[in-house]
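To whoever is covering the structure queue this week,

Two jobs came back overnight. Logging them here so there's a record in the thread.

Job A:
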Amino acid sequence: MVRVRFRVAEDIGLRRFTETRPTVQCVVSVVQRLNDGEYLVEFEIISSEPRDYTEELASMPAITSAKRQSPIGHRTHYLITLALTPGYMVVATELGALLRYPRVIENGHLTVEVVAPTSRLRALIRRLRQIASDVEVLRFGPGPMRSSLGQLNARQTALLHRALAAGYFDVPRRVTLTRFAETLGRGKSSVSRALALIEKRLAESSVASATPPHGPASDRMRGVSSV
């Protein structure tokens, strides 16, 4: 597993958006390819100065539409459509590497964890240095090959992302179970059972994968130049 941080390509709208607003952090929870080749990106804007960024986002490079998903606050959810495939995603796909969520973009830089065999991770870093700038390896070493989400099927994972985006798991909750079920077009009891099963599976996965602590370890990779 590698945790890497790098400057996003100039033609990606969220780079320019976060560079113009350096106190804003974008936390990406879903990137889904659409049938027309565009990408649907779901993310949360965390800002100390809450406001509606919909029009500003829609004016950024490669962003063809933007929609605010939740009321304005310190943590507001948005959906955007992206008209191109980010270069780092192309590289990861070619190398068969898994890009984990969440992916954090701030001040023009993306921080992401990538899972793959060591040889592919090294190739990934080399390729990133060819297409991106300010590439920094924050961690390189063993890591769990499967996250807790690996215990969920595709429908459960999608429901979990929708619930997170809607604020169902926020404290306090930003949406009631009834309202959340209405947005899905499903019955309240059906959604309640589905969420309960998701929570059960995640809890079981967490307990099963728990390991004793191994003592302090540096988060910085030694010998980065050898990658």
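Job B:
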Amino acid sequence: MEYGFPLLSSLIFLPVIGAIGLLFIPRKEELEVKRFALLIAILEFFLSLPLWFGFDKTTSLMQFVEKKEWISSWNVYYYLGVDGISVLFVLLSTLITILCILVSWTAITEKIKEFFAALLFLEGVMIGVFCALDFFLFYIFWEAMLIPMYLIIGVWGGPGRLYATIKFFLYTLIGSLLMLVGIIMLYLKGGHTFDILKLASNSYDFKFQMILFWTFFAAFAVKVPMWPVHTWLPDAHTEAPAAGSVILAGILIKMGAYGFLRFSMPICPQATQAMTVPMLVLSVIAIIYGAVICLGQDDMKRLIAYSSVSHMGFVTLGIFALNYHGLEGAILQMINHGVVTGALFLSVGIIYEQTHTREISDYGGLATVTPIFAGFFLVFTLASIGFPSLNGFVGEFLILLGGFTAKTWAGFLGATGIIIGAGYMLWLYQRVFFMKVNEKVAGVRDINLREIITLLPMLILIFWIGIFPNTFLSYMHVSVTHLLDQVNQNASLAQTGPQAFLETAIRLIGG
């Protein structure tokens, strides 16, 4: 679908221009800085609405396409477009940025204009990642995300921010450099083009696909993050300000799973088939490991961070189930996780601003002094554990359906993660909101109007997706079917299971 107005470019560069504009506002005009940042974010959200209303759900073709020659000597194009797999993430990015600005309104007290400039710049490059259809352009956006996120954690984070930022930077940079090797290999093998759609339409020998799969895996697994390359996430979440945690949970870690969907599966279909069982094993380990670790946490943000490892394990389980229900459930669960976990981090940030503690043992009886806040948090808790009629239930149900269809053991073990997840989330709620009122929180006020407005969109989405899931699933139906067709067309040429994994390793080692 062509679109006369360069909508995607506008969505990428409006917040970037807004970030630059912020730097010209005098530092002492703190309120004007906040208002300008909020105005840009709101304009960005409304500018993204044509993606929702103008999207054609009947085609798998890229829509709102923009393509201009950029570096002719390298055959690089400025090439943008969205389909049913990417469009919802662009919309989620524009919404979450508004909420991040609102939750930071009084929480950020130093270098205010630099903080909001970093937030707006990050929004622009995140949208660029979901829209890029040229590998060169994609890699620029992918790497550019590191800069503002590094600053948000490293400058405005907690006491351990230096360690957390270095760990975050090294993990993601090393993975990205390996992906760069894969991109260069693909460029040379695929006819000296960076066009993602053309490269996905080519056929590659099995050995090349396996090498490419693992170079991509290095970047995407870290970003998800999959076990065992997950250890940067709890540290980054714990030290990041509330807005940083929300962006991390809501958008950034979705880009790893998005990478599997956009690149690994269509470009390496045989390798994807051959690596199904190992990927399912890693996913199940992440689900159970992340959930069990949550039971031993006393820091609320750290608990929610480890729950993200578990929940993203469900996402990769759905992806590598390689069937219709699993894939749709995975994409929807990526949205759900962004909404629910983002809401939980917003809530922790709101209460932390008053109490200056995230230790669960410092709380107790909060429902007595903050009943409205307790009501919001209860809905977020129930959504996190997959309570029926809330959004988490739909995604997890589809993923487990896909998991049982692919491998019974994967569906069964994945379901145990839901049981453990209900345990740690309800135990968290009990310790924080019930029991005797802790004197440390006895004087805490209930949430104000700004904070209610911050949490309300998440509450609406939780019920909307939970009760009317097809509103969102309908955007991805055709694109998911097309993706499965791309993978399955070469299914007969690839074996799956442990035997294929061992044979592949022997073939690669032996050349």
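Note for Job B: The first strand starts at residue 63 and ends at 71.

Please reply-all if you pick these up so we don't duplicate work.
Q.
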